[in-house]
Amino acid sequence: MARKSKGRQKVEMVKMANESNLQVTFSKRRSGLFKKASELCTLCGAEVGIIVFSPGRKVFSFGHPSVEAVIDRFLSRNPSNHHLHPTSGTMQLIEAHRNATVRELNTELTQVMNQLEVEKKRGDQLNQMKRVSQAQCWWEGPVDEMEMPQLDQLKSSLEDLKKNVSKQADRVLILNTTNPSSHYFVGSSSHQPVIPNVGFNGNHHVMPPHPLPHLDGWNHPAYGHFF
Fold first, then answer.
1. CATH code of the domain made up of 19-136
2. Which segments of the chain are extended strands (E)?
3. Where is the protein situated, by its record's location annotation (predicted)?
4. DSSP tally for the chain: helices H, then strands E
5. Rounded to an integer, what distance in angstroms lies between the CA atom of residue 145 and that of residue 151?
């Protein structure tokens, strides 16, 4: 059966009591925070430094051009003198090359994250299609995953199938008994109609094998019964 999704819900801004949910939420929000900081650096050329302590007291950081450079600049309250009064042209080239490299890497990271998001949505769509397909063709799934109404319906359909197979075998047996020699001569043809079986889904044609002859008490050929 297809499960109904609750959709996107608003999260109350209070500390989570469940430790497992807290860890998962921290990991997701931390990645989102660093992604937004990276985008800010790429789009605006901002210098950003972020330090985060997890609930387990682990340290995570993000910095552009580096965490150390941002912290040093903040502690010294020095408005980036190396940009206003460069000491040499070499330092300017190194700084420009490093900034270009960081911007390129940030752009690639953004593209990869966007592609990952697209693939996640595609995976969700495929899972939804799979659930819908399983709900429509539930009899093709494992028996141990079926619910009681489905099991009752499957049992009833299989019993009907068995009855239809038995009736078909009886009809074929009667037709064969009226003309038994037609099965023992090479080249003989039979134009007897084949009665289709209507079983589960009504798609199966059951053709039972020809019965083997045996002698009855009067040494006359007789034919066995299948069901």
1. 3.40.1810.10
2. 48-53, 59-64, 213-215, 221-223
3. Nucleus
4. 5, 4
5. 10
